[in-house]
Amino acid sequence: MNKKYFQLFSVVVLLSLAAPVHASSKETIKLLDLFGDVFDKVKRDYVEEVDDKELVESAINGMLSSLDPHSSYLNEKDFDEMRIQTRGEFGGLGIEVTMENGLVKVVSPIDDTPAYRAGLQSGDYISRIDGEAVMGTTLSEAVDKMRGKPGTEIELTVLREGENEPLTFNIERDIIKIKSVRARKEGDDVVYVRITSFSEQTSDSLKREVRKLKKELGGKFKGVVLDLRNNPGGLLDQAIEVSDAFLERGEIVSTGGRVPDSNKRFNASRGDVIDGKPVVVLINGGSASASEIVAGALQDHKRAIIIGTKSFGKGSVQTVIPLSASKGAMRLTTSRYFTPAGRSIQAEGIEPDIEIEQAKLEEIKGRKVASEASLRKHLKNNNGKKDGGKGTGEDNKDGEESSVYEKDYQLGRALDLLRGIHIFSESKM
């Protein structure tokens, strides 16, 4: 490709990406001419022969990735993989990542994936991949290095807050099949729902699981704990539908940008999958994007109490624009998310209503304190139970609750809160 041809080519391609106000700018033409000169010199003088396609794709990706951490160029292979991922199955390690300070930052590991089982955590920085420094590479290049044939091993060097030395993880790649919704009964009165990501079937799976478990619990059903911790996000329409499942009316989320088409409002339709029963939502620093839309919508409408720690703060919208010339696409940030109250999530995140750090519960054992029942000749209760009975007519759940706290302190607090809300609501009726 000669210089004059490339300059004409670059004007046509790059001006198609520029805003109309700049299309006739002489300064823009000069800059594109500079770009053509650089390309020509690289082609002619670089120490090794370089491929035209690779140079042009790298230039486009450099332009997009310089805008923000989430804009990028997707070649044909990357575009195909992205479409597979949104359907809930892809190859790799099972981590959602972004770029920060020149390193790959883990937004969150995905449940039951190689990265999750190896112990990678939200907030980790990947500094080396198979011994090669990440600094100086683009996010897409780093992601390409982490992908590979299932069964092959990769070594990641990780910087973690609170650790004096880098950590090394040897992880075997695998096919990542994501079941985005997992649900179960907690005790005999609460439905626990964990959403790991927002893919094509998330909303339908959530409503199906909740209805099934709600029916099983019958009249004892008290509400739902919705766990969005370490959920990196996903499809906008699924975040809207999940929010809508618990709302009867009102705005769920709005988007705003420079282009009129990016200014949209999304509203709830009638119908609450749990008929107004209480909802408690769990979030943390690994809850991003679509997770923050759900948490923000339910929080602003006072439909749920949000507990845990502050969320990640990814409040920007990426539009995937197919490019027919390359069979690839570009992912371009086109707008920002706003909660129903008009709050921007970007770089701020969602503040929980009740901040609860994850903790390890340790029992403090002391001497036994005397009670009325231990006193000589104490009066009997006459409640029809033997001495020492609880007198509540219910089974003792102490063992069950203590085990929940030991495994997941935040979940234990969420269950206590939801049951407390139910008791309070019943007392007002």
Global morphology:
elongated
Main sheet: strands, sense, barrel: 6 strands, antiparallel
Distance between the termini: 79 Å
Which structural class do the helices and strands define? alpha+beta
Give the integer mean of the pLDDT values: 87
CATH superfamily of the largest domain: 2-enoyl-CoA Hydratase, Chain A, domain 1
Report the CATH architecture of the largest domain. Alpha-Beta Complex
Give the number of DSSP strands. Answer: 19
Using the coordinates above, name the CATH class of the largest domain: Alpha Beta
Can you tell me the CATH topology of the largest domain?
2-enoyl-CoA Hydratase, Chain A, domain 1
Which series of helices and strands comes N to C?
HHHEHEEEHEEHEEEEEHEHEEEHEEEEHH
The portion of residues forming beta strands comes to: 15-25%
How many structurally independent domains?
Answer: 3
What gyration radius follows from the Cα positions, in whole Å?
27 Å
Number of helices: 11
Low-confidence stretches: 5-9, 11-19, 389-398
> What level of helicity do the residues show?
25-40%
